[in-house]
Amino acid sequence: MDTQTLRAFLSVAKHQSFSEAAEELFLTQPAVSKRVSSLEERLETKLFDRVGRKVSLTPSGNALLPKAKQILHLIKSTEQELHNLSLQVSGSLEIICSHHIGLHRLPPILKEYSQRYPDVDLKIEFSESESGYEQVLHGDKEMALITLAPDPHPSLISKAIWHDQMHFVCSQDHPLAASPHLNLIDLASHKAILPSPNTFTRQKVEELFADTQVSLDVVTSTNYLDTIRMMVSIGYGWSVLPESLCENLHQLPITTQMSSRQLGYVVHKHHSLTNAAKALIEMLKADEK
Questions:
Q1: Residue 258, CB-side half-sphere exposure with 13 Å CA sphere
Q2: What is the model's pTM?
Q3: For residue range 201-222, what is the model confidence (pLDDT) as tens digits?
Q4: Do domains 91-163+263-286 and 166-258 have the same CATH topology?
Q5: How confident is the model at residue 84 (pLDDT cuts 50, 70, 90)?
Q6: What proportions of the chain, in percent to the nearest 5, are helix, strand and coil?
Q7: CATH classification of 3-87 is 1.10.10.10, yes or no?
Q8: Which class for 212: exposed (0-12), middle (13-18), buried (19 or more C-beta within 10 A)?
Q9: Is 147 helix (H, G, I), strand (E, B) or coil?
Q10: Which CATH class for the 91-163+263-286 domain?
Q11: Distances, alpha carbon 74 to alpha carbons 8, 25, 68, in Å
Q12: Most buried among 108, 114, 132, 261, by the most CB within 10 A?
């Protein structure tokens, strides 16, 4: 039983005529007759009495009439509800965000998003980028705003929104600040303050030093870049920081420069996004730099 056969049945019942029903439905009379016959076969009962040119409902037809109207009305209202739902930005959105993005990139976007979509129940967990990556991969979070992995998992979609140029830095009064020319081996002879080994940033640093065959003297590991910046500023060691955190620090003239790191969002390729997530993505893309 489909909507086309029910509409044909209702039209014939209304007009008590197959020809007039055909005109209303923009069909041929045989096509209308075929649809009604198909419905009668499906229900295993006769719906119309045909005496000459007169068409009237049988008891079965009279019983079906209100049900058919209800069915079509329910389908129409359901279609409308789903259409409205497809446009509405509401519900719950759970994302995971790196501390750096949460402090330095997200606030203006979050403020505008909350004002524009007050019906969204937005829950944000702040954690390391690597944790966000894993949680999206395993379906625990719908979206992550993180430092993007250099080689993302094939099940994930990642989009770079911001680009952070990374610099080797030390305090203005650190011994390294007096050197006009430096290389990686020079850095290795001084204390380093770096993120933990499992982070994408630390992995980039270690890749650079891999060819020097010298060991890094990492005295402190923390994944909070603002904490690293503070420790660098008091002369505790050198580090690698994004340009946005280099103010009042000395950028070291290293012959081998760090590449930029990409910050952005990650979603799962095989998970349908909520309208709330789609709306946030559109706002992120508008902020792309």
A1: 25
A2: 0.69
A3: 888 888 888 888 888 999 988 8
A4: yes
A5: low
A6: 45, 25, 30
A7: yes
A8: middle
A9: strand
A10: alpha beta
A11: 17, 20, 10
A12: 132
